[in-house]
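Hey L., structure's done. Input below.
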Amino acid sequence: MNKLKCLIVLLSLSTLCFSQANKAFDPVFKQFKKTTHKIAKGQKYTFGYLEVPENRTDPGSQTIEIPVYIFKSRNPNPKPDPIIYTVGGPGSTTMPSAQYMNYYKYLDDRDFILVEQRGNYYAKPHLDCPEWAKAQHTANLPGFDPDDTDALLAVAAKSCRDRLTKKGIDLNGYNTNEIAADINDLVSVLGIQEYNLLTISYSTKIAQVLLRDYPDRIRSVVMDSPLPLQVNYDEESVENLLESVDKLLGDCEADVDCNRAYPKIKSRFHEYLINKTKSPLEVLIDNPANGDAETFYLTGADLITVFTAASTGEVVNVPFEINKLLNGDVTSVKEQLSYVFQEPGSGAGQGMRLSVWCAEENPFNSQEIIQAETSKYPQVEGLSPAVFEDEVCKIWSVKKVSDRENEAIHTEVPVLLISGEYDNETPVKWAASMMTSLSNSYHMIFQGWKHIPSTNWGNPCAMQAANDFFNYPEVKPNPECFGEIKSPDFKTE
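Output:
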């Protein structure tokens, strides 16, 4: 069975370091000279670790350490309310952003704080799963029976869980509620009276929990590519993917030049995917390990990656690449497949990802709906919408969060929602649906963009809009650059 997968950067092990907490443990922030990354010359900052309980529901919990950067504003008279930033995932690391502070407009006005989410690569401990990375690598190799994938991943999940728990790690301590509490503790320890939140993708869930449980010091929030608490992600993933593909190809058909170059490309692509699901496309790739030619058999569920593998910068090329495929040119497909032979990494953050998903998403998703979605669309039949199969979550065996973690929050705090119009991971409709319960919210949709527009250096406009909002949170941003963004100028030759 094919699965929608979120790729995690494969990194090496860091030092495991945690200690026994007192029943009345007070979080502390300790400064360190040694940083996770090299910081640009001239940038003033403080680096250290926030020490917090691993599981706040357990009076005897161990403590863990979370790396934090506090970057000083370039303004000699900065505004008093800093921005706190953490990335998506779950399972992705925030710390590499520390290298690029010269590019962050936010520092023109206020301090900017990077917070690693517990369990990720630079945190202590970090929940790597090399077993999972190896299993995924094996499952994607030619000749592996796809019917054996679920069993292989189940074994990997058990192996990783057993290893982490033997180290004394409490997997129930790695969830969105605990991360939100970490940020609230950091704010308290640093003596911050008021702050702003910049969140993307998964971390928008962290923002929602903070707004619900710790709202008093939050001045404003930007949610780029928001994931609403109340949606059941796995139930909608395939539908969202196909809607995004149709939106892009529909825009091509509405464009005179694109439609002339690739007439009826949407219907032709769908027909092609259906055909290949019935009769898979054979593609030969030379295995760099031994030089032997390996045969891949690709169905519609595999070939839809012509869209999903494309970054925002490559959106303009998608109709061109699809047309190549329809005409029998598999050059780009071969290029993508060549990565299959790369050695697996450490599965960094995968354990954290499993803990979050199996506690917060899997329990609220209907397995009946997921199964129906897997066979509902003939063009991608077999593509499971589930990030993790139900059996894997049973093996991971973390406690389900309370039902309120699947309910919309209500707040009057100013919120800016940012979407990319071709985002299949967190579609525009999700952000639009949130506005009914976020009474003081605004929504900006960036034409031609996919996931998380504000983090892409190719789109300084989204970052400008976010910064404008932090400066004037009662007004919807309307930077001049926003009006200049148009639909993609699709490649036609």
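The first helix runs from residue 130 to 140. The two ends are 36 Å apart (CA to CA).

-- N.
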